[in-house]
UniProtKB/TrEMBL annotation:
GO biological process, one term: signal transduction
PROSITE patterns, sorted: PDZ
Name of the protein: Carboxyl-terminal processing protease
Keyword field contains Cell membrane: no
Amino acid sequence: MKRNNMFKKTIALFLVLIILSVPLVSYGEGQDTLEDNLLYFYQVKELVKDNYAFDINDNELIQGAIKGLFYFLDDYSNYYTKAEFEELLGSVSGNFVGVGIVVSEQDGYVVVVEPVEGSPAYKAGMKSKDKVISVDGKNTIGLSSKDVVALIKGEKGTKVKIGVKREGQASPIYFTLTRDEIKLNPISYKILDKNIGYIKINQFNENTNENLIPVLKEFDKKNISKIIIDLRDNPGGLLGEIVEVSRHFVPKGPIVHIKYKNKIEQTYYSELPKTKYKLVVLVNKNSASASEIFAGAVQDTKAGTIVGVTTFGKGTVQEILPLSNGDGMKLTVAEYLTPKKRSINGKGVVPDVVVEANSSAGTKDPQLEKAMKILQ
């Protein structure tokens, strides 16, 4: 898709050059030094700047050219403006400044799914199903969740007034909240029948292993030795976090091999003497990247059973790189391999036990039921 877009832009650009008949460097005829390429770029930039019908400045053109570099790379490599980069860092780390609400869009409203425990919104009494109708006096009905979140975000320590419509209340409720740093806990857990521990991991952010440790300690105190790890719809996250999480479950040996462009391999290991739990890992087509590292490691080392459907198939590693002007980029720098050096890029992890999800609303979860049956 990126190549097609760039091809169209290139064709359009050359049509302009032909029509205007402006002499350029004889590009592509053996002159491919850096100096020639930069001169060619400068001439094209000036041509566009002088003849484009609307106002555009050098900074906009140069930023567009930089973004254009990424059209030829894979879909996971991207260039970000300063604002976009800050948002990316927040989403990856699991930490951001705000009031602490998870929202979704329903019937023209942005609705609170849940307030994050311990957050300003939670402490003030904001509730699930509250409909956000205003932010600092601005009507938010009909706005997208992205736009509403942008209004709510701000500097730590500053205040924001949020109006909500609550079911059963005739008048709106207004909350004046002080923005604070929010740490998202990607882990939820419960104890199922037959003393089976269930852990849902939504993402591998900076807080994942930190929040997993007390859960495992609680399970150990209650003599829970059978665990289901649910990675369905988990898009992945940080390599360091998945390695730390894997060390609780994968026996001594390789967890993952990282293969870089220069053929250098870096291997991350577990030192766990032996597996502590009888384990089932649930996956689906949206389990990607770090989730697949975990599933692949569990499968290769026979540390547990993988149940569900074939995973997404993202077997590459991205590095997040800040730039001097505050912008940044995410660049694919390596491919990862399972402990047995299997590549899952474009293939995914095929479960040991294939169980399709039941798409009918309100029905039971056949994948979870199968996991429980395996552990009984």
